[in-house]
Design goal:
Chain lengths: 251, 251
DNA sequence: CGAACCTCTGAGGGACTTCTGAGCGAACGC
DNA sequence: GCGTTCGCTCAGAAGTCCCTCAGAGGTTCG
């Protein structure tokens, strides 16, 4: 097997790839350079090829050059509105997926109709895990899932997560999770046997504008333990001074 | 089994295909580019191959190239009216299905002549679920239903919907639904075990020009629950912060 | 032309989530 | 062994999300 030729994420996890095995290509369009940078960093970490643009015009130019599989697109752009860009993008590449970024109060407004075509949106402020998860969902549904285990279902030991149904179960028994708990567990499950620091977790699972303490991570880990590890051998472990790991129970 | 070669919708559901297994081909003709964009997005999401045209002349050109199985055709076009286009279309491809889009006040008698020929129409403003359902009906009747479970009947658990008869029953007992309730339930049943956000539901089940709040979705879910889940273990579940799911009762 | 029905708005209340703060115990360094 | 640091958990406040009721306005049908 040509492992060396295989496209992988920086975390070593196999990447979601295009059908020919080359990296997924994503165009990030946002007029805030800091946000665009953070986003593209997170997407590169997924093993994807990323390009950024700051306005509608350069977005179209970038789309022509990169021919992206997906576009992350801020609705509020200096030159045009998102709907016009959406149409032009689909003219350039009819099967491109679009993930809109919107302010909370812009929703309902000009976003109407976009989810009907299978595209999606997230409201600012968002967490990086959410953006990545939505993108993976879009790409998977568009037929980008060459990776066999990249179904809607994820497994670590006897812990199973179905992202589409938003269902988690351990040993067949269903577990109810709040939105934040779900996202935290998803992050852990996407990085099994890997120590994740509280700072890393905070950066990925909480919104980028979260001003609070790393203490919340401890709190939510404790919530998760109560729900996930209750009555079983623990899968969530503390590595003192370093962070947390999720790993399958060794028999 | 050639799973990879199988034509599927983006939602993972098997698609309605042509008898040879290739995607159904649809031509969308409307002079409003936004509407054409939303429509073609929704139809692509069904796994179909779509092409758009903005007037009668390019519609005919598109029909020559694409040789579509069905045409979604606005009656009011800038250059000709839809009925003239229909005649020319039938010369190009006699067995093509046509779904007319009309304003509410368009002359009824001319439309009546259409439906006699097996074609169909919807009045603006319409919901995308309605357009897709009508098209599926037309295509099915025209012999496009290679998919065996693509009959007029749909089942989730003990919940059964007959789309043609517009009848719904749970555990054999008939349920009366209003038009909106019916369409909402159809959307849920076409996406079982899949969390649907209020925005998604609004975009598909409500008319594209609906300006109201996502709150109506909650309201209609509550109506549906009273009729569908009354006296049974619930099938409609709220996923807080994410949306709603319909799933069969687990034994 | 009236009655029944359907759709949507608004408001109230309840349930759930999220985060802060504080106390306590365990692990670590010296 | 002792003090300090680190992490866990409880309790509660504030906020958010969701459900339901009641009723207005519109439409359809008899």
């Amino acid at each position: 097997m040509l492992v060396s030729a295989m496209n992988t994420t920086r975390s070593g996890r196999p990447a979601l790839t295009r059908p020919d095995g080359t990296p997924v290509r994503v165009l990030v369009v946002d007029d805030d350079p800091d946000l665009a940078e953070v986003l593209s960093g997170a997407l590169r970490y997924e093993g994807w090829e990323v390009r950024t643009a700051g306005d509608g015009a350069s977005a179209l130019a970038g789309a022509h050059e990169l021919r992206p599989d997906a576009v992350v697109l801020d609705v509020m752009l200096p030159d045009t509105d998102g709907f016009a860009v959406l149409r032009s993008l689909h003219e350039v590449k009819p099967d491109v997926c679009v993930l809109f970024l919107t302010a909370r109060d812009t929703v309902e407004d000009r976003i109407a109709g976009i989810t009907a075509g299978g595209d999606d949106y997230v409201t600012k402020p968002f967490s990086l895990e959410e953006v990545v998860a939505r993108l993976r969902g879009l790409l998977r549904r568009a037929g980008m899932a060459r990776q066999q285990e990249e179904g809607p279902r994820m497994t670590v030991g006897d812990l199973v997560m179905d992202e589409e149904a938003r269902e988690v179960s351990r040993d067949g028994r269903l577990i109810e999770l709040s939105p934040t708990e779900f996202e935290l567990l998803r992050f852990l499950m996407r990085n099994p046997r890997r120590v994740l620091s509280k700072a890393q977790i905070l950066d990925r699972v909480w919104s980028y504008d979260f001003g609070g303490q790393a203490h919340v991570v401890e709190l939510y880990i404790s919530y998760l333990r109560k729900k996930v590890d209750a009555g079983h051998a623990p899968m969530i472990h503390t590595v003192r001074g370093a962070g947390y790991v999720l790993k399958p129970v060794v028999r």
